[in-house]
Amino acid sequence: MAPIRRYLRWLGHDARTWGLGTNMGDPEGDARRMAESVAELAAEAGRPVALVGWSLGGVVAREVAREVPRAVSQVVHYGTPVVGGPNHTVAARSYSPAERDRIERLIEEINAESTIEVPITAIFSRIDGIVSWPACIDRWNSGVRHIEVGSSHLGLGIDPDVWRIVAETLAPQGRSSRPHG
């Protein structure tokens, strides 16, 4: 995320890290912890903040938006498995069948119980190679804009199309996403 964070700062955004260090694959715990910091940040800023996440970071961003919707203006994620959890990723083998089933049931329960009420931009690629692209299609929440790009999963982090989409999505209405001068 560092390259796109630098790019967004260059465009004038107050782009920050998620503040939790290295993603160790605990989206449930990370979302709880991050929801608190996002709520505090939004309160300090006096306005909701946008969240940008890649892969599992997108899962965390979505759950933060579900948990503290008044603190989040929108979510932009790419290469994010929103269906089936690890079952639709190359990481599936690193989970036990019982844990994969538990996560898939949890995702279905959470989405059946509550929707995400902030705008979501879901960027995906049919050639991802890590996350199955159909798992990136959000069928539960209204207001989701799906955009396809042609990049590998690892390439999403430096794909100029992804950067352009993120920048245009975060740009205030009626303003260019490019700095002047």
How far from one another are the termini?
Answer: 26 Å
Strand content: 5-15%
Shape-level CATH architecture: 3-Layer(aba) Sandwich
Uncertain parts: 174-181
Report the CATH C-level class: Alpha Beta
Total E-strand runs: 4
What does this entry look like structurally?
With 181 residues, the protein is of the alpha/beta class. It has one domain: Rossmann fold. The protein has five helices and four strands. A four-stranded parallel sheet has the order 1-2-3-4, with helices on both faces. Helix 3 (56-67) links the parallel strand 1 and strand 2. Helix 2 (27-45) packs across helix 3 (56-67). The two termini are 26 Å apart.
Condensed summary:
With 181 residues, this protein is α/β, with parallel strands linked by helices.
Which structural traits does this protein have?
globular; 38% helix; Rossmann fold; disordered C terminus; 181 residues
SSE layout:
Layout: H1 2-10, H2 27-45, E1 49-54, H3 56-67, E2 72-78, H4 97-113, E3 120-125, E4 144-149, H5 160-170
Parallel strand pairs: 1-2, 2-3, 3-4
Helix pairs in contact: 2-3
